[in-house]
Amino acid sequence: MDKDQLPRHIAIIMDGNGRWAKARGLSRPQGHLEGVKRVEEIIRTASDMGIGFLTIYAFSTENWSRPQDEVGMIMRTFIMVLGQKANELGKKGVRINFLGRRQGVPQEVLKAMDDAARLTMNNKGMTLNIAFNYGARAEIIDAIKSITSQVAAGKIKSDDIDEKLISAHLYTKDQPDPDLLIRTSGEERISNFLLWQLSYAELYFTDKCWPEFNEEEFLKALNSYAQRERRWGGVKV
Ligand code: IPE
Ligand code: IPE
Ligand code: MG
User: Fold this and answer.
1) In angstroms, what is the span from residue 2 Cα to ligand 2's centroid?
2) For residues 56 and 14, is the Cβ–Cβ distance under 8 A?
């Protein structure tokens, strides 16, 4: 594939672990464990292809409303996988970064996140954003609070507020917006993901559930992207 036809930043809503498991007579936790394998596969593939930024939606601010045992299982799995894989990803040059609110995340999860971020902070390869306890509306609220407090302190004037300034106050500051959004499992919605940053992203939906989304499926999404004509509100030149 032509390098300049590759997205610089790919965002993924990894959905359908539960339905994948149910369809096979397995439990939802088994679906999540199979999903973890695809996460590893897609991170490896994206990093090997030279993708600059990969953002994966791992846990939303709304996902706390799930049954307590499922939430607990996701937290334990997250701690375990971060502990086991951060080192390996670090060796590939991947820099692990987290998007989301820290408030409300259990201490031991925060520790695993901080360890993984610290271990990989000086890496120069792909940036892996893991959206955890992430909600786009919460992100926008946090940005507004931060901007208004700077206005109140006289550090900036309200006239200075523009798109660049707002982007600089989001969790994704200093990063390009996603070029491509992938959502698995047949659902065609955004579910409170990167509302600001996705303004001009190309959208790719597939009926495959996340545990089925292997390297081959990922390449199909990239092929689809390579055929898109992006216009940014202009006309084709
Ligand atoms: C995605 O799969 C994983 C998370 C949201 C953590 P789901 O758990 O949402 O699976 P479905 O949508 O119920 O099939
Ligand atoms: C979106 O999936 C969140 C993650 C993938 C972490 P959900 O399964 O939570 O979204 P809805 O409920 O189908 O919109
Ligand atoms: Mg779901």
Assistant:
1) 32
2) yes
Q: Ligand 1 center to residue 179 CA distance, Å?
A: 23
Cut 0.85: pTM above it: yes
- Looking at the predicted structure, is the pLDDT value of residue 8 above 80? yes
Identify whether the C-beta of residue 78 lies closer than 8 Å to the C-beta of residue 59.
yes
Cα 89 to averaged position of ligand 2 atoms, centre (Å): 25
As a whole number, the mean pLDDT across the chain is 97
The answer as to whether 144 is a domain residue is: no
pLDDT value at position 236? 79
Q: Is the residue at 165 inside a domain? A: no
CA distance 192 to 77: 23
What is residue 33's predicted lDDT score, i.e. its pLDDT?
Answer: 98
Respond yes or no: is residue 63 known to be catalytic.
yes
* Percent above pLDDT 70 for the chain: 100
Q: Which domain holds residue 202?
A: 3-136+177-226
**Is 15 an active-site residue?**
yes
Residue 34 lies in a domain: yes
Pocket of ligand 2, beta carbon within 6 A: 13-15, 57-60, 63, 187, 189, 191
Number of domains, the chain = 1
pLDDT at 77: 98
Given the residues 2, 17, 48, 63, select the one marked as catalytic: 63
Q: Is 77 in the pocket of ligand 1 (CB under 6 A)?
A: no
Cβ atoms 155, 211 nearer than 8 A: no
The preferred substitution site among 32, 63, 188 for testing ligand 2, maximizing ligand atoms within 8 Å of CB, is 63
- CA gap 117, 130 in Å, rounded: 10
The conformation of residue 177, written as its DSSP 8-state character, comes to: P
What does the pLDDT look like over 99-145, one tens digit per residue? 999 999 999 999 999 999 999 999 999 999 999 999 999 999 999 99
CATH of residue 25's domain is: 3.40.1180.10
The answer to whether residue 143 is domain-embedded is: no
